[in-house]
Amino acid sequence: MRKSRIKLALELIAIAIALFFLGNSVSDFRVYEGATVALYVIAICSIILLTGYSGQISLGHGALMAVGAYAAVLARYYWHTSGLLSLIIAVLAAALFGLFLGWAAARLRGPYLAGTTLALAVGLPSLANQFHFLGGEQGLNFDIGAPPKFLGSNFSTTKWYFWICSLAALIIFWLVYNLLHSRFGRQWQAMRSAPVSAAISGINIARSKVLAFTISSGVAGLAGALLVMTLNLVTPSAFPLSLSFAIVTGAVLAGITRLGGAVVGALIIVAIPDIADQIAIKAGGVERVSANLPGFITSLLLILTILFAPNGANIGKFMSLRKKKTS
Amino acid sequence: MTLQVTNLSINHDAIEAVQDLTFSINEGELAAVIGANGAGKTTLLRALSGLKNPKSGSATWRDNSMIGKRPEDLVRMGILHVSDGKTVIPELTVKENLALGGLWRKDKTDVAKATTEVLELFPKLGQRLAQRADTLSGGERQMLAIGRCLVARPELLMLDEPSLGLAPIIIEQIFTALNDLRKRTGLTVLLVEQNAMSALEIADKGIIINLGKLVAQGAARDLINDPTLQAAYLGY
Amino acid sequence: MRLLSTFLIGVSSGSIYSLMALALVLVWRSTRVVNFAQAGQAIASTYLGYLVITHTNNYWLALPVAMVAGAVIGALADIALIRPLNRRIKSGPVLEIAPVIATLGLLGLIRSLVGMIWGGDLKQYRAPVSINGFTFGHTTIPFSRFNLLIVFTAIVVMVIFAFVFQRTGLGLALRAAAFQPEIARLAGVRVDLVRTIGWAIAGATGAIAGVLVTPSTSLSPNSLDLLLVLGFVSAVIGGLESLIGAVIGGLILGIGLALILEYVSTSLAFPAAFVVLILILIVKPAGLFGMKRGRDA
Ligand SMILES: Nc1ncnc2c1ncn2[C@@H]1O[C@H](COP(=O)(O)OP(=O)(O)O)[C@@H](O)[C@H]1O
Ligand SMILES: [Mg+2]
To answer: Are the C-beta atoms of residues C30 and C177 closer than 8 Å to each other?
Structure first.
């Protein structure tokens, strides 16, 4: 069921216009959350491409996001690159890192890859503490520049970030969609579902896997750069283990093979802290409970999904079922 | 009837590997299940030993249902199965493989006694007790697998193509040992074979299946001499 | 003297990595799951041990309490999570990643529960014996009485492991269920039960690692994450299938990291561990003690 490229492009443009009006009509905090959703969509797309299609698992995409983020910040900090160029550098740096990692990863399966990438997620961000030029625990400021003048003087930076993130998400979505429906996407699927016959039919499995890892890393790097853009700051603590877990959770909730689910996954991930806050307030607002409730809900959701709906929360199917019932 | 299989059907997803199979075996008999490759013999044994859930039908051993029980429970009912392919645990020693068969039993003196009997029956195993099972020859592995079952004092022993890949002289040895054992202990044996002649020669009863369905069952001697069966299923 | 002392420190931290690696290998062998929740199970057990210490001021009571807690949590994890998972997921795109995801979820769940109960602040865990290094004449080495105790405890645990696995019926059942579960079943071994026991033993072992490592660091809901990673690296060095390999892998990693920390740079410990992991996986994927089984089983 492949949509034509033009049709998808038109749909995405329609979404962009809708987002434009939405961005103008809600509070600044919601706009900020919107930017976060958009960058999570990007990160989740990178996992869906990697895990859902090429069959490789990564628990360390938070670390790849960190690579992208630090690359963008360092480029801007030391070379004063423009905002756009910084983001491009983020993609390239993370992709390059992913290329090396993917080269090792292509030989690994399942638990080995999971363990290796987990090691990366645990250890890599903390490296920044130990090298002075990376800014240590305090981090480095990251200011991508004020919104262009023509947008008006009361156009907030938050809204500017929201625009950038949303635009990036739409572009990435379109690119990844096309990639997954290209020769490469079909190769990845063949490789994941029937590795032996894929190899017999002439697919170079190792190269194909490395390619997926490289692209996925580049996409994750962009998400990382956008993340620190919205924070105005890059620090090791922006990339905790829970970030890697959150995007994997988002991808699993999305249905690991359904790109469209990325939006659902991202919305849930961003909504959880809000919902948790509401619950925590009702429950008396003990600090240590409210601080841990989002993690608790996320983990519980992850476990329940993998047990009861391993192919994703499948909200689309749920809604279409409901439609049939009511009609 | 000691073993009674009634209208048993077993599927592998869409493949109906065994269809509506009915047969029975008496106490102490050696019954041979004969059929070509893919006839459903392995599937049948796996269902009888609890490794596979059948789609419908029943199977009873001395009037106790065998269906819906786990292999380890059936073992405790005296039903032992040597599966096809890997029959022993290669990473363990011969001694450990044998000990495994008696692990669940409370009567440790009888386990020791049964182990001694196994080593008398298959003296080759006795010389290799400390070796890992993957150093054994094919015939020795088959002996070890049967020996492991004997340590559990089986009442029904099911063997899946024990002769596969073995030299005729080894097959002869194993079958002779099996026959001796049967006479001595009253063991009931369900023997699956492609090699129809050698199986029917030692069997009391033959059960011929083809493409999952029963073709014929009866006294082994009668089946050997039935000209239509000979031509179609027994391969000579 | 400096070399010897560094070596001893390496043996001490390496024996803790070995314990974590043993826990991971045990579960991997019995259920084909690399249990990332091991860090969570161990942290919950360690906190329970902390509870005992704060009330009784007795480390020697905390250790068994943590072990029992670890065993119970491990058994529950298998019964409530892994068994249903194996029953429900038999094919499809998530088959391979499902156990990883599930144990990840469990890790997050336990950690957040621990955080809710005890909060996120760092807790101090008093060592039962001195953590000041031994003094010979005028020189004091970093290796302390407590380090000695760690090594001793780890050795005791490993001897018990060796005895149970090689000399008892339970050990035989554990090995049989790990190598060939179907044949083990056909021999009458209650494989599900045996697996759960494997998870319980692994849980207790991880708890020991947690209680041993914590006095030298401090306790927080994620203070054992690094230990999980180092345990994983150790297990991979040993080939992931082998209990002895896990012990040796832990010691190699412990000594190697101690040497790097002492002679090269404190900032290189993690990159070094990571590079070792990648190198092993690329050059010697079956571990340094090459087992016959493939990596992808
Ligand atoms: N695990 C399985 N999955 C799918 N089909 C199977 C499986 N095992 C056996 N079959 C099919 O069931 C039929 C019977 O196989 P089997 O019982 O192995 O026959 P036999 O042992 O007589 O050679 C065959 O068509 C075979 O392809
Ligand atoms: Mg067969």
So the answer is: yes
